[in-house]
């Protein structure tokens, strides 16, 4: 007599339950995990991509790594943080593989810009800020996102991207300058209202 295997059950509202079912290769649990974290993964990957198609490819690769390495997840750390690290590393691997960026060792000849007040950024919506970041050259976008948004140090970025720490610093500086220029060109009213921080300081 053959006995039918009991279906693997899990609670969609309990991430540990979902994870345990995924570890047993339960397709429904895997679908649930992707559904619950796809938007979060997308918000990360879009910051590292200039086009949505690249972001979706990174997301797909990232979730494959999530399921492949799920047995290494330690429950004392947040699952969101664990996924974020995988997605960031997958984005870096993607651009290394496709050789879509070149990091600049030399100082770029950029137009000297005034220091922009943080109030300028606060007046721009998240989607508009994302669009500006996506318009940065890839080398600048990678370093800016890793340092400013994801909180890595220049030393960590250098190790992750295989570049010198000084190169990371110079790419961040140039990324800031380009962002300031884009803000001035795309949001002149905000730039005039809030952006002349350094000039006001010098006048006093």
Short descriptors:
mainly alpha; Rna Polymerase Sigma Factor, Chain: A; 11 helices; elongated; disordered C terminus
Description of the molecule:
With 204 residues, this protein is mainly α. The protein has eleven helices and no strands.
Briefly, what is this?
The protein is mainly α and 204 residues long.
Order of helices and strands: HHHHHHHHHHH
In total, how many domains does the architecture comprise? 2
CATH homologous superfamily name of the largest domain?
Answer: Winged helix-like DNA-binding domain superfamily/Winged helix DNA-binding domain
Unreliable sequence segments: 105-111, 198-204
The biggest beta sheet reads: none
CATH architecture label name of the largest domain:
Orthogonal Bundle
Count every helix, treating DSSP H or I runs of 4 or more residues as helices. 11
User: What structural class do helix, strand and pairing data support?
Assistant: mainly alpha
Kindly provide the name of the CATH class of the largest domain: Mainly Alpha
- Which range best describes the helical content: under 10%, 10-25%, 25-40%, 40-55%, 55-70% or over 70%? 55-70%
Distance between the termini: 91 Å
Strand content: under 5%
Total DSSP E strands: 0
The Rg value, from CA coordinates, equals 21 Å
CATH fold-level topology of the largest domain? Arc Repressor Mutant, subunit A
Broad shape: elongated
Overall mean pLDDT score?
82
